[in-house]
Amino acid sequence: MRRAGLVGLVALVTIVWPFVVPPYVVFLTTLILVNGIVAIGLNLLTGYTNQLSFGHAGFVAIGAYTGALVTIHAPDMPVPFTLLLAGLVTALVGLALGIPCLRLEGLYLAMATLAFGVVVLEAILNLDWLTRGADGLRVPPPSLVTSGIARYFLVAAVTVVMVAAAMSLVRTRTGRAFLAIRESEIAAQASGVDVARYKTVAFVVSAFYTGVGGGLFAFVVGFLSPDGFDVFVSVDYLVMVIVGGLASVPGSLVGAAVVTLLNDWLARFQNYRPLIFGAVLVAVMLFMPGGIASAAAGFNRLNRHGGLRAPPTPPIDGSGRPGGAVTPLE
Amino acid sequence: MTASAVAHVVVSGLATGSIYALVALSLVIVYNATRTVNFAQGEMFMVSTFVAWSVARAGAPLGVAIVVTLVCAAALGFVIERLVIRHAIAATHWDVLIITLGLSLVLKAGAGIVWTNDEFPFPSYFGDRPMAIGAVRVAPVSLGIVGASMVLMAVLYALLRFTRLGRAMRAVAQNQTAASLMGISVPRVFSAAWMLAAVVGAVAGVLIAPVVFLSTKMGLIVINGFIAAVLGGFGSMLGAILGGMLLGVLENLAPLYLPTSIRYSVPFLVLIAILLLRPSGLVGRVERRKV
Questions:
Q1: What is the DSSP string of B95-109?
Q2: For residue A21, how many other CB atoms are within 10 A of its CB?
Q3: Cα–Cα distance between B286 and B288 in angstroms, integer?
Q4: Neighbour count for residue A223 (Cβ, 10 Å)
């Protein structure tokens, strides 16, 4: 009953929201949701399956350019098809990257995905007959989605579908396989999980989410240029996922909101912006280890008895040594 | 393209590669001790170089400036480890990753506020006139960078191989629990590793600053250092040096033979190719793990 009430309240606020807040806030909310979709995609790969990616801006770029080019060359294509196409093209690239990357883990995987991101940027710069290179690409509004409020409802609808799908996915056999791989690849394999297959699935699903997010990004921002997708953007998505909480779908949305709002709010501080942003990151991680989702889970545990304790995260270097196993003797 | 021109490019590639190797080494030193990848290493290197520039501009002789810089770099490493990283000792690698990223933002913005984001020329200690070795003409600065890096690497090797501290650091790298049971103070090794890494980074900064202009953007070199370390096999000192040299030479040779459209992608494509052939880097071993 309480759950149904909560869902109803969220739905009501979502519908009324764009009519009561100023247009700029509507735009910000839209951007948060778009980033949230990308963060969920990255979380499925990095948080659930423990495959670190420093190249998700590359996937966002592929989705965004696909969405933009389809809108330009086929203006009558219904928006859902355009987004689906953006997601599928990106998923295909994710498959092409994911299969060779099966051999890599930890930092080596991080490095390969970082390299992938750089190569995607160079490709966009050099395919200027298609992407207009460094000049940037203006994205015309797709059919029926011409106002800020229309964009908001489009993004909100897609977010609802993507969040519901992700929350269901992580509870299926596939989701449990992801978590098993995260805890220990060897143990997962010994328990009959097809590690190679599920890692590839994680890559493809993650790329699909990111591609759809990229397509929406193209519509929301209306202008694409390669320097909007550099390594630092990939790092921003990682920050959203880790600050929000690894292996938590709502956490990713919260992380996206925190990073997007912080970036926007700090714009007024100009030179001090990265200084404050960095200090906030350090403080959050020092005082809320495990991110906002695990802090919230801890708070819930205090209020209610029981509840599942989040399992510890294995280290990114794949060495099997947990991060804080050794507390040095003073 | 004559052979001597190629040799010239290779030598400057080795010079760039030495810098990458030093940055990679400082990443590896911290990683081996604390199992942390320090993404703020590039910014620490940049701040140290700015300190050297300020001291030199205040009229101190170059030797004094360098000594002051190395001391400041060590102090910076010590303070960061002691005040921030030590408190996250029980945190996961993910948390520490975000913390070092945050630190790099803080250091970069802080440097921008203190020294502005302009580019400054940095005094060179090597002559400008190209020297001829046989038929090959090389820039003295390239030789100077390669030579100084070699000396530093030799010193590092001796330090790790023959001193008590070096033995303690190697022990901690192998097994922290066993090391602390043998009476090694692990926190002290953590401090030492951060200070040592900061000093190695500062040397790299002072060496490269005369070639590229001094600016707050210099910290970006940490990405190349990271690539070099991974290329060699993360955790291996020899690998870091090999990876750095390979990356530097590739970066300098690629523009000679390849169209502009793909030259910047080449190091990255080579990186992907090498990782696919040798998933643990050039000299890295596949770690055998238990469940």
A1: HHHHHHHHHHHHHHH
A2: 12
A3: 6
A4: 11
- Judge if ipTM > 0.95: no
Q: Which of B43, B83, B96, B105 to mutate to test the interface with A (most CBs of A within 10 A)?
A: B105
Q: CB contact, 8 Å: B161 with chain A?
A: no
Nearest to B109 among A114, A272, A315 (CB): A272
Q: CA angle, A114 as apex, B249 and B290 as ends, to 5°?
A: 100
Q: Check residue A325 and give its pLDDT.
A: 39
Q: Over pLDDT 70: what percentage of chain B?
A: 93
C-alpha distance from residue A121 to each of A124, B255, B285 (Å): 5, 18, 32
Which among A2-11, A64-73, A302-311 has the top mean pLDDT? A64-73
Using alpha carbons, list the distances in angstroms from residue A143 to A72, A150, A151, B93: 11, 11, 11, 45
Q: What is the pLDDT of residues A189-225, one digit of tens each?
A: 899 999 999 999 999 999 999 999 999 999 999 999 9
Of A288, A328, A326, nearest in space to A310 by CA: A288
Q: Do A286 and B87 touch (CB under 8 A)?
A: yes
Query: Who contacts A177 (Cβ-Cβ below 8 Å, separation ≥6)?
Result: A188, A193, A194, A198
Nearest chain B Cα distance for residue A83, angstroms: 29
Contacts of A284 in chain B (CB under 8 A): 98
CB burial string B96-119: b at 16+ within 10 A, e below: bbbbbbbbbbbbbbbbbeebeeee
Domain ranges of chain A: 21-230
Q: Return the half-sphere exposure (C-beta side, CA atoms, 13 A cut-off) of residue A17.
A: 20
Q: What are A299's strand-pairing partners?
A: none
> Which token pair is A160?
């609802």
- DSSP state for residue A319 in the 8-state scheme: S
Plot region of A291 (φ>0 → left; ψ -120 to 50 → alpha; else → beta)? left
Residue A246: predicted pLDDT: 87
Closest to B6 measured CA to CA, from B135, B125, B107: B135
Mark yes or no for CB contact B95/A289 under 8 Å: yes
Q: Please write the tens of the pLDDT for every residue from A124-169.
A: 988 888 888 888 899 888 877 788 888 999 999 999 999 999 999 9
Mean pLDDT along residues A77-92: 94
Structure token pair of residue A111 = 């490095």
Show me where the domains of chain B are located.
33-226
Out of B37, B95, B187, name the one closest to residue A285 (CB).
B95
Burial of A101 (0-12, 13-18, 19+ CB in 10 A): buried
Q: Is A37 helix (H, G, I), strand (E, B) or coil?
A: helix
Of A61-70, B147-156, B245-254, the poorest mean pLDDT is in B245-254
Q: Looking at the predicted structure, is the pLDDT value of residue B111 above 80? A: yes
3-state secondary structure of A171: coil
Q: How far, CA to CA in Å, does A30 sit from each of A14, A37, A157, A162?
A: 11, 11, 11, 15
What residue type is A201 in one-letter code? Answer: V
Kind plus residue range of the DSSP H or E element containing B55? helix B41-57
